[in-house]
Structures are given as structure tokens and as C-alpha cells.
Amino acid sequence: GNEVLPTTVASYLYNNTVEFNRGTEGTTGNGILVASRQWGLTPTVINSSAALTSALKEGHHVVAAVQQDKFSPWGYGTSHEIVLKGYSNGNTYVSDPYNSANNGWYPIVSLWNEQSTQSVDTRGLGNPFVKITDI
């Protein structure tokens, strides 16, 4: 496949949509859907902890907006996107694009319970966890 850099995605969203750094810091939940489709990927909103576990067991990447945890330490009203991949004994591997020191295995149930409730993350999605596939 083609390499798509984060800066390329940010530039596209900023210049062609209102989903990145327009009225809020960072990318909206809807921006995840828009960007995925722009590069030919299929985003699917995950609506339960069981569906999250299933997607991770199947080997898919999941982008997750979380809040009030170690990944989003900026206080109430803030959230942060992390990437989940893999499954092992109820845990998934988290990649934190902001702080790689946070990368590692975490309980899926805890991450699901820490999902963002910020409207910027949930508007149009319901839940701010999105499975990304290339089909």
C-alpha cells in the first residue's frame, strides 16, 4: 500500500473539511471517518466491548478516543486518540501517538470504560471507537 503520513492526513482534513483544528484542538470523531474513506479504508464504529474484543482478536486496528486516564492527562473536558491492535488474555496493545512511553498492553475493559464522552468525539458516531479495515 501507499504510505500516508499523519501530516498529510492533517493537511487534508484542515484544508478540505472542518474536522481538524477548526473549533477544537485535534481531529473530531467524524474526521476519523472522513480521513479513512479519503484513503480508501473502511471505518466501522464499534458499539460494544464485545465488538471491540472481536475486532482486536481479528487483528484489526482500532482508533479510540479516551479521556480522564493516563493517555489524556490534561484534565476534565479533554480527550485523546490512541491506536489499539492485537489481543492477549483480555488485553490489547496501545500505541499512543503523543507519548510513546505509554505504549504497551492494557485491559480492553478499562479502555472501553475510559472512552471519551466529549461531543466532538462522539457526534455522528455514538461511540468513539472505530475499527479501520482495508476492505
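That was protein one. Protein two is written in the same sequence-then-structure order:
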Amino acid sequence: MHIHSPDTSPYQSSKDAIEKFPERCTAIGVRQTKNGNLEIFAPYGLDDIYHYLVRPTPHFIGNSKRMDLYEKRIKKKNWKEQWPVITIKYE
């Protein structure tokens, strides 16, 4: 999937990939441990989800090509239409 994100090296792990997702609110992974518990990996925390906030990850903020992709993705997903309460940030 790194080929879809400009100027991004191949991911070293699932956690590395999640850290480089476009939006902080989508950068979350869940897995079941051997004893049946769920383990959450949320490198940017869960506050953006709780507060209906969509904003780019640091990986995207630092690169104009990736930010162009972020903006196109936001328009394509049309999240504001589906969930009017969300706030979308571009910084």
C-alpha cells in the first residue's frame, strides 16, 4: 500500500503502516491476542474519533504530494455529507 502514498518507503510492519495512514482518526488497528483479549493500536490516540475530528497524520502534513492525496481522499469519501457533525482539518 505504500505505493499509493507519494514518497513513502515500504512499510516495516502493520504498526508502521498504520502510523502512515492519511487521517489520524483512521489510524487504528485492533487484533485479538492469544488469550482472546483485544489489543488496540492507535498511535495518535482516540480523541479525534471521540470528537468527530478528521485531520492528517504527521506523515502527510510534512509532504505536499501526500497532502494533495489527503485532500482528494477527503473529497472522494464525502464524509461531511454522511456525518455533518465532523470537523475536517487540512493542517
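Strands lie at 29-32, 38-41, 53-54, 87-88. Keep this in mind for the problem set.
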